[in-house]
Specification:
Layout (H helix, E strand, L loop, with lengths): L16 H24 L3 H39 L5 H7 L3 H28 L7 H24 L5
Helix pairs in contact: 1-2, 1-5, 2-3, 2-4, 2-5, 4-5
Length: about 160
């Protein structure tokens, strides 16, 4: 199994090396995209709108992906407790409550909807500008792609509490 193997007792450890690599990769990808936005877009409205939207969207998608991972771990531990392989009290003491998972999903969903909505509105309203319309549209699409990659990164990283 090697690199992809996670020892069972490290599921809720602080972000370790592999998670650090994933989080750093997402941040570097977002930073490169933001620098490209600030170098290529001429409209200050589009720069600020796309920059803020990309950050909110990528962070929200990462949180949502990471929460999917947390929910799956909770389900696996619960299945093991129901099967009698571990004591139910031990399972409950190591897992976050369902309300925490639901709140994280809500936070990620609201941020993702707001961020993607703003990127789409920026794409629509940038069509009225004389210069930089194509760059703003490309930046919005790349922001959505970056957010999707951050979602995948969030599902790969260890759950962050």
């Amino acid at each position: 199994m090697g690199v992809l193997h996670e020892p069972e007792d490290q599921h809720f450890s602080p972000a370790l090396m592999r998670s650090t690599v994933v989080i750093t990769g997402c941040l570097v990808m977002l930073a490169v995209l933001e620098i490209w936005v600030w170098l290529t877009l001429s409209s200050s409205f589009a720069k600020v709108s796309v920059t803020g939207s990309m950050i909110v969207t990528a962070l929200s998608f990462f949180i949502t992906g990471n929460t999917f991972r947390l929910r799956d771990i909770r389900r696996r531990v619960g299945n093991r407790a129901r099967a009698g392989r571990i004591a139910p009290i031990d399972a409950l003491s190591t897992l976050p409550p369902r309300e925490t998972i639901a709140r994280r999903f809500m936070l990620g969903t609201v941020g993702a909807v707001v961020g993607v909505g703003t990127l789409i509105l920026t794409m629509i309203f940038s069509g009225d500008e004389q210069q930089g319309a194509r760059e703003a549209m490309v930046a919005s699409v790349l922001g959505i792609v970056c957010a999707m990659l951050c979602f995948v990164g969030g599902t790969f990283a260890r759950p962050i509490d």
